[in-house]
Amino acid sequence: MTKEKKNLLDISDLSKDEIKNLVKLASFFAEVAKRPVPKVPVLQAKQVVTAFFEPSTRTRLSFEVAAKRLSASVVTFTAATSSITKGESVKDTAMTLKNLGSDLLIVRHASAGVPHQIAKWVDVPVVNAGDGRHQHPSQALLDCYTISENFYVTDCDFSGLEIGIVGDILNSRVARSCIEAFVRLGAKVTVVAAPTLLPAAEFLSVPEGSVSFTENLDEVLPRLDVLYLLRVQLERMEKNAFPGVREYVTRFGLDAGRAAVMKKSAVIMHPGPINRGVEIAADVADYPNVLIGEQVKNGIAMRMAIIYYILTSRYEL
Amino acid sequence: MVNEKMLKKQTGTSKKIILKGGKVYTKNGFLKKDVLMDAGKIQAVEDVIEAPSDCQTFDAQNCVAVPGFVDLHTHLRQPGDELSETVLTAARAAASGGYTSLAAMANTDPPTDHPSAVLYLKSLTESVPIEINIAGTITKGRRGEELSPLAELASLGVRIFTDDGNGVQDGKLMRQALLYAKNLGIVLAQHLEDEHYALGGCVNEGSVSATLGLPARSHLAEEIMLGRDIALVKDTGARMHFMHISSAGSVPLLQEAKAAGLPVTAEVTPHHLSLSESLIYSFDPVYKVHPPLRTKADIEALRNAFYTGVLDILATDHAPHTSDRKEQPMDTASPGMLGLQTAFSVAYAATCLGAEPLGFSDLGKVTDWTNRELQETCYDSLGNNAGAISGKAPSGQDIDYRDAKILNDCFMNLINKMSVAPAGILGSGSQGSAILPGVTANVCVIDLLSDYVFTKRDIVSKSWNSPFTNIKLPGVIRHTFSDGVPVLADGELLF
Fold it and tell me: Where are the domains of chain A?
């Protein structure tokens, strides 16, 4: 690894080998979680900032738990209680966070590209914890890890797995990162959405033919190994992206009937937060093959891997 | 700082000026001539003029002398936003770029929607040595709700009206504006973006917006409003000027309107002829502009339309912004880029030398838009077939710049669209005229064979948001004369 500062901004920053190694590292850190004292003293001298300009529950807490388990000190920045409300700019805020002695900035912002901009403005590494509708690389990585664990995949070879991603692709940073990662690892990816919730197919940055598109969930359900549901952003309804919750549930919602036609081995994933009764029926969300809880747990291990990978030079990828 | 124009006004004299050895843009095309200027006018254009003793000589060897450029689209930012630009700093940028006339956009604070605002701005423009035409707003406060006092402002000399920054969204109101303006001898200029398709967006809708998840401004925003406005012109018979055309889809609409004889004109900016949407991958808001940078296919179509005459003029949409308004998330960063200083070189590279549009993969190194061979061919071709400058490439085909005849056409076309044609739209008598005895001495002298790498340090504007830094550009503006007074001499500003 070079001495240059390492960032994790887009999933495309990582080679296939780097993804594999991060998954391997995550499974090691998952063991740490099972110890009586679930901590390793590797980053005692480091200070990590979670700079969240947009609300979050699991991603921020997950990064903070991960940093703490690596024995780093954690500083939390939340826009709503900061000088941002007094009109301080993102750039000045980032400079301040850096000057407070931070070794790593973990950034979320409602606008695409802000982590990239901050990475240019400050000379400490930046991890993108979700930027607008653009990228959410740590989510894609924890999902790759979750799928690997569940299907006992060796070496992150996803060939033979078909993953269906359902929902608002157009407005989803999770979808942009996940589609790219899953395709990179060899999975067959099928996207299920109405045209108003989809960028034109030719505009998705994946190799031609690597992703198929359909509006018919029922047709693809019996084939899928992983059904990946995206959160329906109800605020989008105002813009007529779809005609209403009832219509969405009818066409794309996972209810007991639809769950019943899925393969026995198939699993259901969701990046959270879920809308029970919209993209997934309330009772189906609690089925044993729903991996939402696993995703949260694995998120800690993967984020430990990410922070460790960026802040140490000892681990050669 | 010496203000020559003020000086001249105070003393009533200006030195005689001789321009020696250049190829001069005359009625009969380019001819190798000396030019004598005095008392604000061109006095003589002869093969050789012996310099009188009391005169200042300017070297124009290996240069062309053309009518000073006229920009119909400049944001001077004064009054209201003097931190990003002032009348003086914009005028300096203009003179550096060979411009002798600007049209000051109306989206100032306060906007020029009232005689008091126009008169105040007029008082500011008197202290700079180039012509500033003040644009008025079409609607009060640019709110798109009530008409501005168009006739009263016209009586103060306002010739062009626009709500630029925004288009007039209400089609019924736009029709009223056109009907009312029809006989006032003014032109209404439209910022073509239907906000239903554009509002909140910051990049072109397409592969870049899809990949980056950035909110988009569709090309439909332009085409839909253009279609509407063409129908309104057809209905009212009023003149209309369409600003910053950016989409390939607008070209056939304009072509059809012109074929039908409608009184419409259209402009294109240097950046829409030369910068591709992929630059947005850098997340650098210096590339954020309204309408947004579009695809290479759009750029090709615009270059063709520029050549064939569907697009009438080049206009800069020079839009200075302070760094704090640009160093922001893409969503909230202010749209717009500087243009005056580099307009000629950029347009020369784009429309005469066939320079590849700048894209994301070009960033991080110096991009070379020069082309020694074509620059020499172009300069040599000028004057060789003087008078025969009407040949047009068939539309829809690639322009073969290596053909000296076509290259000659391209260059004549560019000069025409930077000075003659925009002056015509403004109805200006003192600008955009071929260089011949008796006309006002607004002249720009360009060294077509020299090149320069444009850097931040070269920026004359108060703001630095130029997307053209780190590019090796062809053609250096040597001298600019405004009203017979040198304002730029050997590349040095004189005010």
Answer: 11-135+296-311, 137-291
Q: What was the pLDDT predicted at A239? A: 75
d(CA B227, CA B115): 32
- The token pair at A184 is 């990179």
pLDDT at residue B393, rounded to an integer = 47
Residues of B within 8 A of A111 (CB-CB) are 329-332
Q: Architecture of B68-362 per CATH? A: Alpha-Beta Barrel (3.20)
Cβ-defined contact of A111 to B331 (cutoff 8 Å) = yes
CA pseudo-torsion sign B61, B64, B68, B72: negative
Q: Helices A137-150 & A58-69, crossing angle to 10 degrees?
A: 70
Position B313, amino acid: I
Return the CATH architecture of domain A11-135+296-311. 3-Layer(aba) Sandwich (3.40)
Q: Which two tokens stand for residue B313?
A: 């003029």
Residues forming a β-bridge with B45 = B35
Q: Could A132 and B214 be called an inter-chain contact, meaning their C-beta atoms sit closer than 8 Å? A: yes
Tokens 């500033």 sit on residue? B132
CATH 3.40.50.1370 fits A137-291, yes or no: yes
pLDDT in tens, B131-179: 999 999 999 999 999 999 999 999 999 999 999 999 999 999 999 999 9
Which residues of chain B fall short of a pLDDT of 70? Answer: 1-14, 385-397
Cβ pair A132:B331 closer than 8 A = yes
Nearest-Cα distance to chain B for A265, in Å, is 33
Q: Is the pLDDT of residue A236 over 70?
A: no
Query: Which chain A residues are within 8 Å of B332, Cβ to Cβ?
Result: 111
For chain B, what is the mean pLDDT? 93
Rg (CA), chain B: 21
The answer to whether the CB of B486 falls within 8 A of the CB of B493 is no
Q: Is B368 helix (H, G, I), strand (E, B) or coil?
A: strand
Cβ–Cβ under 8 Å, residues A70 and A43: yes
The residue among B345, B472, B305 whose CA lies nearest residue B69 is B345
pLDDT at A316 (0 to 100): 46
Chain A residue with minimum CA distance to B196: A239
